[in-house]
Amino acid sequence: MSVPLVQVNNLHIQFCDNEGLATTVVNNISFNVPRGQITALIGESGSGKSVTALSFLQLLPKQATINGEILLSEDDVTTTNLLTLPAKAMQQLRGNKVAMIFQEPMTALNPVYTCGIQVMEAIIQHKKLSKAAAKKAVIDLFTLVELPEPEQLFKKYPYQISGGQKQRVMIAMAMSCGPALLIADEPTTALDVRVQKNILLLIKKLQHTHQLSVLFITHDLTLVAAIAENVVVLYKGNVVEQGATKNVLQQPQHAYTKALLLCKPSPAQKGFTLPTVAHLMHQTLVPIPIATAPVIESNPILSIKNVTIQYPVKKNIFGKPTQLFTAVNKVSFDVYKNEIIGIVGESGCGKTTLGNAILGLQPLTEGSITLNQQVISNATAAQMKQVRSQMQMVFQDPYGSLNPRISIGDAIMEPMVVHQKFGSKKQQQQATLQLLAQVNMPASTIHKFPHQLSGGQRQRICIARALAVEPSFLVFDESVAALDVSVQAQVLNLINELKASHSFTAIFISHDLAVVQYLCNRVMVMQQGVIVETGKVNDVFFNPQHAYTKELLAALPNHEKW
């Protein structure tokens, strides 16, 4: 029997704060990554998944104290302890033998270099190819991961492409040198189901053809069932269960694993509060009906009329656009008071652009947007300030939307100060603590900074900040994509509570069809800037009419593998 590619033995990681107080985040864990197989590392946000992965490449901050072994087998005889490898040797290993797809592509990509140059850099560094050969290799990789117009995208900067496209650039970069081990940290979080399926198929293909080993970090158990041969379950820094995927998911032994399996929204749970890990660990599952939401009114609170948004692709020497890209094409719809309407579609279809336009963050080429019978698409800065006290947005990238120099408490209180909410600073601090409790974050978080939190925790902070001015209308842009299933359940329950108690109205942009079906009243399917299908959620999902909607539903991971 061959030696596993990676053996993790008694890995123990602590972080020390400024006062020297140590906090254990990974507690003497041990597991293997077999050769040529995909091993899933699952658990809630903050369970230690990403910290474990970063330790493979010595990417943890200096405040970390690491003990144990991570043994990489060159063959069945020679092994290398990645924790003790010298800096120069580690530099040669990173991206070459061991590559990583990071969770947040916007912060992992350099904003001052084009996407193509950044992938070329890794190829030239490790493969010693000429620039021409490296460029061809990059374009081939971009084609492989289904990036549109690879030659054009080679010249684009990260800010010029969508979140899902940035993630695919990261995947291309990770695969550029043919690593033996690929660490994928939530690699499909920002991707729609169709592209997600293609990426998973790509990873499986590379695994089989190159005997690639993959450590697949995720909170989506549906993906684990679809892709992984083995699974390791982390809970509060401890391995509580591990084994073959089929055995663990079909016959879980630990209460925590059982709880994770029950937190994912399903059609049967619509109308009921979603269970969370905290409840399931301590009591029997009893479905609780959602509090009756206010009746959806017949008068629209938001009206979108013939909205078109175009970007210049090429300009002449005088700066006049000679070629335009239409991101949103003559879109019209109404949102009625007390309803949540979902917008689904593949990355780059115009969902986020439309959401930004509603908030006044993106100018319109044509059309109008009306909120509470007031046209806001041509509002002045002073008028938009008043509008934003009624309407807020939860952005897709939690790290990019938080100021790294401002504490979490100040970030949440900032909109309260701008819009003069809750009176004195003491009252604002109290309101901030209440918001942190609502999104299941401890009071001590008020003094922390964004870099001290996990990806899922940062997303919860962004939701709390959006709620800080008590808006009547919210735009959620992939706001639960980065959350594990338990925290996702908490946030969805919170949204339902707000909908019931505060006459809540929202647009919910997402690629997670299960979440949209659970949460929303109506759904719109968007393709290439056009709404191709709209209707009540169950009507669209159970009886789709448009070919593209059928394609999206067909791309969902196969639940039969459970």
From TrEMBL:
**Gene3D superfamilies hit by this protein:** P-loop containing nucleotide triphosphate hydrolases
Q: Which keywords belong to this entry?
A: ATP-binding, Cell inner membrane, Cell membrane, Membrane, Nucleotide-binding, Translocase, Transport
Q: Which GO terms describe its molecular function?
A: ATP binding
- What is the species listed in this Swiss-Prot or TrEMBL entry? Ferruginibacter yonginensis
This chain's protein is named: Dipeptide ABC transporter ATP-binding protein
Membrane-topology descriptor: Peripheral membrane protein
Give the UniProt family note: Belongs to the ABC transporter superfamily.
| ABC transporter domain span | 6-261, 302-553
Q: Name one Pfam family in it.
A: oligo_HPY
